[in-house]
Amino acid sequence: MGNNRQIIQYRRRFLQSAGLGLLGLAGMSGKIRAAAMQTLPFGNGERELVVYPQKRSLLRITTRPPHLETPFEVFDESVLTPNDGFFVRYHLADLPLSIDPDRYRLTVSGHVDTPLSLSLNALKAMGRVEMVAVNQCAGNSRGYSSPRVFGAQLGNGSMGNARWAGIPLRSILEKAGIRSGARLVAMNGLDRPVLPVTPDYVKTLEIEHAMSDEPLIAWEMNGQEIPFLNGYPVKLIVPGYFGTYWIKHLCEIHVLDHPLDGLDSFAMNRAYRVPDNECFCVLPGTVPDRTRPITRFRVRSFITSLQNGSRLKAGQKILLKGIAFDGGSGIKQVEISSDGGRNWEMAVLGRDFGRFSFREWRLDFVPENQGEVMLMVRATANSGETQPMTASWNPGGYLRNVVESVAITVA
Ligand SMILES: Nc1nc2c(c(=O)[nH]1)N[C@H]1C(S)=C(S)[C@@H](COP(=O)(O)O)O[C@H]1N2
Ligand SMILES: [Mo]
């Protein structure tokens, strides 16, 4: 895939840009001019707000490679997460800083009849479908694992919901012609391994999944081109599946008749694995005997209109708001409890943007008794899946979906 990449040395550019603030970020298309590092204090000081091209202030998790979380208030703004507020996650420090849309090619190779090399215009000429879908990092909420686990200590902001436009992955695979015996479809992006320390980032989908209606090759996010850091010019959307599969700067699709092996298999065979049992969990602190790749989201819900420490007046009605989502059956109901889970009140669901989207919910709520109150939110999906009252544990800190609570004070 060497010829369709235009990389400017990251380190030099990055150092040069330090101190430039936001200068030169306007009018950017397909280009990172500067990774501006305007830092601001945040909360208890453990996380800083940083500004990157095309992004509002986001929470810095790591700088090389960039890993930025969405401040949770953003989810209260709208059911579609604004592009400039959408989280960013990279594994490889050698990421492209500039991509020429005229030179970009998406190649399809391997176990196919006709290998392809498609320009951006050729892709766009193949059609256009839209889908609203949540992207959630597998490590979202990992920081709440107890006992603590290795890896980035993420809060709840490594997720976002957007309207994606592009073509089904299937259309491209059909165009190339899948040969019989094909088992997996491997996806790679323009970012490169930093060898020998960091292997390339390659993910595979089972052929049946790749040929289903679900995965999309998208070039548009909320009606605009995809922000550079979210995968410009083309990103793989895998609705209901964790972000680890949503390859950014997608440039290579390789059809395999055998499992992925060697160094390239790191992100499938070594990382992003969960215990291979029904709860995807083990006793805290222990190691699973067998693991398998993480796949779909579990059902989750959040209160977005209040934070820990919010103060309310007893007897005064407020509108409680939040979001819920699952791995693709859609949300059936959302309930709220203010008495530790003994009684639950049914929230009203908002507009339905499709079964892979955040579903808004609201509830008129009157706090009655003064003091500290725990508000809990619990969603149930159309599949019947609901959220447990106690968290299970796995060594990756993946798949958190316990009932979340917000501690408020009623005065
Ligand atoms: N090319 C490329 N694609 C990638 C990754 C990466 O490191 N490189 N990280 C994945 C992971 S783990 C996540 S959570 C999502 C994050 O998508 P976003 O940065 O657009 O929010 O991108 C995925 N796609
Ligand atoms: Mo991720």
TrEMBL record:
It holds the Pfam family Mo-co_dimer. Its cofactor is Mo-molybdopterin. InterPro entries: Ig_E-set, MoCF_OxRdtse_dimer, Mopterin_OxRdtase_euk, OxRdtase_Mopterin-bd_dom, OxRdtase_Mopterin-bd_sf, TAT_signal. Residues 293-409 form the Moybdenum cofactor oxidoreductase dimerisation domain. One of its GO terms (molecular function) is sulfite oxidase activity. The keyword Mitochondrion does not apply. One of its GO terms (biological process) is sulfur compound metabolic process. Residues 95-261 form the Oxidoreductase molybdopterin-binding domain. Keywords: Metal-binding, Molybdenum, Oxidoreductase. It comes from the Bacteria. This is Sulfite:cytochrome c oxidoreductase, subunit A. The gene is sorA.
